[in-house]
Every structure is written in structure tokens, then in C-alpha cells.
Amino acid sequence: xxxxxxxxxxxxxxxxxxxxxxxxxxxxxxxxxxxxxxxxxxxxxxxxxxxxxxxxxxxxxxxxxxxxxxxxxxxxxxxxxxxxxxxxxxxxxxxxxxxxxxxxxxxxxxxxxxxxxxxxxxxxxxxxxxxxxxxxxxxxxxxxxxxxxxxxxxxxxxxxxxxxxxxxxxxx
Length: 172
Prior knowledge:
It is a single chain. With 172 residues, the protein is mainly α. It has a domain at 51-96. The chain is built from 4 helices and 5 strands. The chain has a 3-stranded antiparallel beta sheet. A two-stranded antiparallel sheet has the order 1-2. The longest helix is centred in the middle third of the chain and has 56 residues, at 41-96. The model is unreliable at 1-5 (pLDDT under 50). This is DUF4368 domain-containing protein. Residues 76-145 form the DUF4368 domain. It holds the Pfam family DUF4368.
């Protein structure tokens, strides 16, 4: 406790921030059972060595991750190139048969790799007369093709073209 000069009464100090706390002398801290020691030159070197080991380990881990990423991206590029070649082959086959009059076995062999046919099921239990069987065609060169998705994308692109043409017409 401390006294203000002149009034003779003891008052407790009020501390509003951590910077306002009084600094205790080292002897008072020793009485509380705390010990303080300065790091020796050897321990500072050991701490620096540990820090260097951690940084080295982090660097090696990052290098390994980057090497794996590069290999993965190379594989992706190869796959994309392969798909690009496959699409070109598919387009060439389509051009070959643009004026085809009849679908025969040779045309099917050139275009179709596999055909999957599902079991018959009833989509709506209230309508047992309605039966559905799904068919998935896996084409050579391009794999399975989702015609429904392609049709939706085509319709969206056509709408966008119409909007841009209407906008261009409104400007003139």
C-alpha cells in the first residue's frame, strides 16, 4: 500500500491497464518461489538449431508436396491431350457419316463402345403400369454422353445469343 503525501490515509492503487501494474523487485519474486535465469550462450545456439531443423523439415515437406503436385498436373495435361485427340477422332468419324441413310453394324462399331441397360423399374408407385428402363451409351473416343445436359446447355446458349442480339438491336 502507499500513502499520498499530506493526507495520512492509505489508499489502494487502481490499475487500469497491464502497463499500470507496479514492477516488483527481484527479491519479492524470489520470495514467491519463482526463479529467473538468463539463457546461456549454449542454450541460445541449441534453440537456433531446433528452429533451423523445423524450417528444414517444413521446406522438405513443401518440396515433396510441390513435386507431387507437378506430377499430378502432368498427368492431368496428358489426360486432356488424350481427350482432345479423342474428340478430334470422334468429329472425323461423325463427318464420315453425315449423310448416312441407314444405321448398320459397322457404324455402330465405329461409334459405340458399350451399351448399359438397367433393370425395369416403376418410378411412380401410384402408376404401376408405367415402367422405365434406362439406357446409357458409352461412345468410342468421348465416353458416356449426357444428351439431356447437352440439350440444356445448348438451349441456354441460344437464349444468351438471342438476348445479346436483342440488346445489339436496341442500341441501333
